Amino acid sequence: MADIHKTIVVAVARNGIIGRDGDMPWRLSSDLKRFKALTLGKPVVMGRKTYDSIGKPLPGRPNVVISRQATIDHPDVQMAHSLPEAMTAAERLARETGVDEICIIGGGQVYTQAIDLADRMCITHVEADLDGDASFPAIDPDIWRAGETIAVPAGEKDTYPTRFVVYERRHA
Questions:
Q1: Would the pTM of this model clear 0.90, i.e. be above it?
Q2: Which domains does the chain have, with CATH numbers?
Q3: What is the pLDDT of residue 10?
Q4: What is the pLDDT of residue 114?
Q5: Which of 43, 58, 75, 108 is most open to solvent, judged by the fewest CB atoms within 10 Å of its CB?
Q6: Is residue 28 within a helix (H) or strand (E), and if so which, with residue range?
């Protein structure tokens, strides 16, 4: 069977901020629609704090939540104690459901560990510098090649304009 792609899906402010006080420091309705389209039907891997901020499993996707202590007793959530364990579970779920992609959806600690495993990143660049307490690692242009880029003006339910970029890992 073909390789399972590992894709990071994230929205990042110009200064690297992705979260504040367990939430996102923006409202981006148009980006939430894109997020749903990108992740629907695919296993999503997230940390417990991200899961808590969402408040429930994301519907239409197998949810794998990483936590060293907590357990979430929900039929749509599979628990893992580490990122490698979560990725193994997500790959199995992807094969069982016949999809070729896993989406890594946060938060900061998970992204920092997963950036070395990912082969693709779908990043919404929020055109603002914001205060926050969770950040995304720097994107190394020697490792990542920016491909398709779509400028998205702020819609009526968006607090900032964005730029959606798909990055592919450069292979040696």
A1: yes
A2: 5-169 (3.40.430.10)
A3: 98
A4: 97
A5: 75
A6: none
Distances in Å between the alpha carbon of 166 and those of 53, 78, 103, 105, 156?
25, 28, 13, 15, 24
Beta strands in 14-129 (DSSP E): 17-19, 44-47, 63-66, 77-80, 101-104, 120-126
Q: What is the DSSP letter of 94?
A: H
Lookup result for tokens 């997500």 = 90
> 128 in helix, strand or coil?
coil
Q: Strand, helix or coil at 112?
A: helix
Say what the pLDDT of residue 171 is.
83
Q: From 13, 26, 54, 44, select the one nearest 136 (Cα to Cα).
A: 13
> Which residues have a Cβ under 8 Å from the Cβ of 101 and sit 6 or more positions away?
4, 5, 6, 7, 42, 94
Q: Which pLDDT score, from 0 to 100, does residue 70 have? A: 80
Q: Which long-range contacts (CB under 8 A, 24 or more apart) does 32-37 make?
A: 34/124, 34/164, 35/9, 35/105
Q: What is the pLDDT, as a whole number, of residue 172? A: 61
